[in-house]
Amino acid sequence: MQEEALQGNENIKQAIAALQQNATPELLAHALTAIRRRIRENGQFVVAVEPNPGTTQMSLKVVQTPDGRAWWYAFTSFEEEMRGAEQVQSTFMADIGKLLETALTVPEIEGIILNPWHRTLMLDKTLIQIILPESPVVAEDAPMKILVSACLLGENCKYSGGNNYSEKAAAFVQGHEVIPVCPEVLGGLSVPRTPAEIVNGEVVTKDGVSVDAAFRAGAARALAIAKENGVELAILQPRSPSCGAAEVYDGTFTGRKIPGQGVFAALLRENGIPVRDADTLGNTAQF
After folding, report:
1. CB crowding 180-214: b at 16 or more within 10 Å, else e
2. Among 97, 167, 195, 267, which residue has the least CB neighbours within 10 Å?
3. Model pTM greater than 0.90?
4. Pick from 283, 273, 280: which is nearest to 130 by CA?
5. For the segment 81-114, what is each residue's pLDDT rounded down to a tens digit?
6. Is the Cβ–Cβ distance between 33 and 138 less than 8 Å?
7. What b-and-e string marks burial along 105-129, b requiring 16 or more CB atoms within 10 Å of the CB?
């Protein structure tokens, strides 16, 4: 009976596999549609659980990614769960639709990591809202509104006066509505400018001058542009104190990287806009 409730989830795995081969908005939409179809079929996922301290009850297992964000684990099959058996002690079956609806009500988590060890897809709450049946139908061929760090598109707004042109980013957004922004320029900083890093939560230049107010003002202006344009996804410059989505430089100006996020990346996430690091395009574990 349990296996019957998982039948059909193979279509989800196949959709994620296609997305891993070619990470495009269209294939992401296809993967989300596959999950939505399984909700309509009353499909289930295997979910990881752990004992609730002080009681005899079990609760959904919460795991942290390197950037400090908390997630639940779910699996399309027992085979996928067994790939990391040493990390999951207990599981049970959960209705996919109810699981996603519950995730939206828990402020402590970012969402659900589906198949964390193979055919991985990170479903944050924005993607979950798209999946749920009461949301508008996901149009697999509809163009998306994608915000992109302007330097990735060749605009000379980098601190050095140059750019960080990315063929991956340019290819990813082809055929979609693109909204380029540079939060640092929007905050009034010049091009070129002294390099800056995050030091104890404050953005400071290499010569010790705080530019935190400018960075945060620019992030707020860039967020307003994103909201005005109905942005659905942001592709950002890696490791930047503004735009770093998964890691940033450690504040010593030695090139050492640590898990974390830039001021603008954090603000986008706080406002429900999915963020991708340009270096991870092609890696669906970062969706």
Report:
1. bbbbbbbbebeeebeebbbbeebbbbeeeeebbeb
2. 167
3. no
4. 273
5. 787 656 656 778 899 998 998 888 888 888 999 9
6. yes
7. eeeebbbbbbbbbebbbbbbbbbbe
